[in-house]
Each structure stands twice: as structure tokens, then as C-alpha cells.
Design a protein that fits this description.
Blueprint lengths: L1 E6 L7 E5 L7 E6 L2 E6 L26 H21 L2 H12 L3 H4 L1 H23 L2 H19 L5 H21 L4 E4 L2 E4 L3 H8 L4 H53 L21 H14 L4 H12 L5 H30 L1 H18 L6 H20 L1 H6 L8 H29 L5 H24 L18 H8 L1
Antiparallel strand pairs: 1-4, 2-3, 3-4, 5-6
Helix pairs in contact: 1-7, 1-8, 2-10, 4-6, 4-15, 5-6, 5-8, 7-8, 8-11, 8-13, 9-15, 9-16, 10-11, 10-13, 11-12, 11-13, 12-13, 12-16, 15-16
Length: 492
């Protein structure tokens, strides 16, 4: 009697069963985890070796909750504090560099533009490495680079040094860190690990995916409040150098917590390209890529230029202009979370994402009519809510157009890599429009509003081409959920 493996999901325990069918000799079955072993006289014993591989264990449906799943949300939240939260503090750095180096804002803005460019460009590369299981060298390299860049920024004396440290080096580190999170889950001595940050949360949640992703991405808003407060409070007492070093130590401590919490659950793809060009044959995916490009071309400009607008146009003192940055980032916490709740309960992530993009574009157009500090504060609150809300739903919206969770990292990475060109040129282009218009911000405001409204229209076409708009809840077609009844209904 030989042992023949038959792949079949089962509980994580052993069950001995004896079956007898139509007078045939009893068959003894041993079920353990997702591997079923049967005794048979007609199969070779060495066939067992072909099944004891990582491919034997099929991915289970996302748990959609539980301690482990929500710990991944916490880890992702802390990661976004260190990456996008630090970036959202750029308004303070820009004001300091313009004053310290006597340079125009359009020149200084290349630092933050190259950061965002590197983050999005590396998303495809590091996301594929994470999908393949190369977590540790990728994430550790990213964390070391980011902390090193922050420390080097604190000792920079010239602008080109700032560009290399805070722009290039920090952007490289953030790009690697943002696209990956630590994790390994042991299953019968086989490791199932690694997927991109946004994709990691998507593999733990389906029905609550929008809420989970929104909370993760709210970390950028929290960091956008915490780091400016640190900068404002410590700068007069410690100076620029030690203030930035304190930020670096905070980032280092938060990353240590991330490494201790994060775990993944989807089998790594040991083989496969860094690009999945077949995805662009899907009309919905291609249109979504175009919409993302337009969105990234302008969505950050208001966050980066609202302080200079308050100072140059409304003639607000620098101390009061910082309040606008706190207000925008503070309101954006609610903007990250509340739209996710509505997306899960009523409209679906893609539909809500389109709505927020359109409203953000309209609010950007309204910026042209702002001529007082009180009006600017009201405007900043509205844009902080809607502008951050659409960023919080980006991952969930794209997940709704993705059928294979193991390709989630590559698909998100490709969209962001293409969008990185828009992120690179968006802020300097906005500054160039201001200079071309002799200090008038109207051209930049109209450009930003047009891009966001255009992104909403293109993403509407993407939704109609796919399934997001047609589904009431906008829930993704999750390939790892094995719904036998659905398949039977399809056959019938």
C-alpha cells in the first residue's frame, strides 16, 4: 500500500477516515492542513515528494478581521507616517530652503518632486521583489537609506547637497519601504511571505478593505501633523540640524515597531516578470493608469503651495501660514477614514474614489476665488478632506479591478511607476506657471482643477469598462476566495 497525495483543502489537524465504496477495499485517508494523503496499491510512494512544495498549500480566503489582520493595518499606518507623513511636512522645509538659499520655490520644489518620483518609480521594482519573497534585503535597505538621508539632510550646507540627501537618497529609501512590509508566516516549515504595503492589506481584507486601507493611509496625515509640530517647537531651540535629527530618530523607532508587527499570508511568486504588460490589455486597467497620471500631476500642489499662497497673495505672517498646514493635514485624517467607511457600506471604493477626485477638482477651481485668511482656512479644510480622501482610496479602487491577488504588487507598481513621471513634473510645473504668470497663482489653480476633473472622467470610463461601477458595493473579484457555489451556478 503506497501513500498518494491528493491536493485538497482541510482543517489544520489530522483526521483518520475509512471509506468503503461498492465492495472495493477500504481506503484510509489522512487529512492534514491542505494536503490529503491516501493509501492506494496502484500509486508509487515517491510521488509524495512532488507535492511537498509551497504550491501544495493553497491561499485561504482573506480573514477580513482578527488581531493579526488589524496588526498589519497598524504596521502600515506607522509606515505611512514615516514615508508620506514626512513628505507632507515639505511645506516647512520649502519655506526654510527658500529663505536659507535664496532660491525660487519652483527650484526648491524639485527636491520633493524627485522624492515622490523615486517612491512611485520604485513601486514596480520593489513590489515585484516583495511578491517574489525578497523582503529582508529590500525593506532593510530602504529603511537604512531613509534614516541615513534624514541624518545627512541635517548636516547639509548647500542646496545641491539637500537635493542629493533629501531628494534622491530619501526618495530611494522611501520607495523601497513604502512598497514593502516585513512578514513571514510559517506553515509546515514552508514560508509564505512578502507583498507590497497596499497589497498586503488587500490580502487580509475584502469587505472591510476600504476601511483598512484608509486607516493605513491616514498615517500620512498623522505624520503631516506630528513632524511640523516637532519642527516648529524644536527649531528655535535646537536649530535646523538637531531638529531634523530628532525626526530621524523618531522614524527609526517607528520602523522598529513595523518590523515586529507585520506579517503576510500570500504565497510568494518565485518566478514572473517585474512587469505584467498583459494587464494593459484590460481597458479598465489602462484607463485607470491614465486617470492616476492626471491625478498625480496636481493633487499634491495645493499641499506644497498653500503656505506660499498665504504669504505671497494674502500677506499672512509665516507663523499663521503654518496653521494652514496643520489644518490641511489634521482634516485629512478624517478624509482618509470616513470615505473608506462610505465606500464599504454604500458605494464601493472605485465609485467613491471617482466622486472624491471630482470634488477635489471643483474645490481646486474654487481656490481662485479665495482672497482672505478665513476663506483660505475654510478652503484648506475642504481640500484637505477631499484631496487626502482620494489618495486613501487609490489602493482599494485598483484592487477592485484586480482578479489575481498575487499580481497585486506588480499591477499597483506599474500604475505608480507611470504616475511617477507626473509626480516628478507636477510641482515644478506648478511653480513655473506661477512664475510665468508673474506671481499670480490662477494658472496653477486652473491647471490643477482641470487635471483632477479630467482624472475623474477617465476613471469613470475605467469603471464602466470594468466591474467597479456596475457592482453596488464595488467589491473586488477576489481570486483567492474559492466559492464553489458560484462556480456551480455558472456551470448551470
Amino acid at each position: 500500500m503506497d501513500i498518494v497525495p491528493v491536493a485538497e483543502p482541510g482543517p489544520a489537524r489530522e483526521i483518520l477516515e475509512e471509506e468503503e465504496k461498492d465492495g472495493i477495499e477500504p481506503v484510509r485517508t489522512v487529512k492534514t492542513q491542505s494536503l490529503e494523503l491516501r493509501r492506494s496499491a496502484s500509486r508509487p510512494t515517491n510521488a509524495l515528494q512532488r507535492f511537498i512544495t509551497p504550491s501544495t498549500f493553497r491561499d485561504e480566503p482573506p480573514p477580513d478581521g482578527g488581531l493579526k489582520a488589524w496588526l498589519q493595518v497598524v504596521a502600515g499606518h506607522l509606515t505611512l507616517i514615516c514615508v508620506w507623513g514626512y513628505l507632507n511636512s515639505w511645506g516647512l522645509f520649502q519655506a526654510y530652503y527658500v529663505s536659507e538659499y535664496n532660491l525660487p520655490a519652483s527650484t526648491v520644489s524639485w527636491v520633493v518632486s524627485i522624492q515622490i518620483f523615486m517612491i512611485n518609480l520604485l513601486a514596480s521594482f520593489s513590489g515585484r521583489l516583495f511578491d517574489a519573497g525578497y523582503y529582508r534585503p529590500t525593506v532593510l535597505c530602504g529603511m537604512i537609506l531613509e534614516v541615513f538621508a534624514i541624518m545627512m539632510t541635517s548636516v547639509c550646507k548647500r542646496f545641491w547637497q539637500v537635493f542629493l540627501a533629501q531628494g534622491v537618497c530619501s526618495g530611494l529609501g522611501m520607495g523601497l519601504v513604502w512598497s514593502v512590509l516585513d512578514g513571514s508566516v510559517k506553515m509546515k516549515k514552508l514560508t509564505v511571505e512578502r507583498c507590497p504595503t497596499v497589497s498586503l492589506i488587500s490580502t487580509y481584507f475584502v469587505k472591510r478593505r476600504s476601511v483598512a486601507l484608509a486607516f493605513v493611509l491616514s498615517g500620512s496625515s498623522v505624520g503631516g501633523v506630528v513632524f511640523p509640530v516637532i519642527f516648529q517647537q524644536l527649531m528655535p531651540h535646537l536649530g535646523f540640524g538637531w531638529t531634523v535629527r530628532v525626526m530621524g530618530f523618531i522614524v527609526l523607532a517607528l520602523y522598529a515597531v513595523v518590523l515586529s508587527l507585520a506579517r503576510t499570508r500570500i504565497n510568494p511568486r518565485a518566478s514572473g516578470p517585474f512587469l505584467d504588460l498583459q494587464s494593459f490589455k484590460e481597458l479598465s486597467y489602462s484607463l485607470f493608469t491614465v486617470g492616476t497620471f492626471l491625478m498625480l500631476w496636481s493633487v499634491y500642489n495645493a499641499f506644497f503651495y498653500v503656505n506660499s499662497y498665504a504669504h505671497d497673495v494674502i500677506h499672512v505672517p509665516s507663523s499663521n501660514s503654518l496653521t494652514l498646514l496643520y489644518l490641511m493635514n489634521g482634516v485629512s485624517v478624517a478624509g482618509r477614514i470616513l470615505p473608506g467607511l462610505f465606500a464599504d457600506r454604500f458605494f464601493g471604493p472605485l465609485n467613491t474614489f471617482i466622486f472624491l477626485t471630482a470634488i477635489a477638482g471643483i474645490v481646486m477651481f474654487c481656490w481662485t476665488a479665495v482672497d482672505s485668511l478665513s476663506a483660505l482656512m475654510i478652503w484648506a479644510a475642504f481640500y484637505g478632506f477631499f484631496g487626502s480622501g482620494l489618495q486613501g482610496l487609490f489602493g482599494a479602487a485598483l484592487a477592485g479591478l484586480t482578479t489575481d491577488l498575487q499580481k497585486m504588487g506588480v499591477r499597483i507598481g506599474m500604475v505608480l511607476s507611470i504616475g511617477s513621471v507626473a509626480a516628478l513634473t507636477g510641482s515644478p510645473l506648478a511653480g513655473a506657471l506661477i512664475e510665468y504668470d508673474h506671481g499670480n497663482y490662477r494658472s496653477m489653480q486652473i491647471f490643477g482643477g482641470s487635471c483632477l476633473v479630467g482624472a475623474a472622467l477617465v476613471n469613470t470610463l475605467a469603471a464602466l469598462a470594468g466591474t467597479g461601477w456596475l457592482r453596488r458595493r464595488g467589491e473586488p473579484r477576489d481570486s483567492c476566495v474559492d466559492d464553489e457555489s458560484t462556480r456551480q451556478e455558472t456551470k448551470n
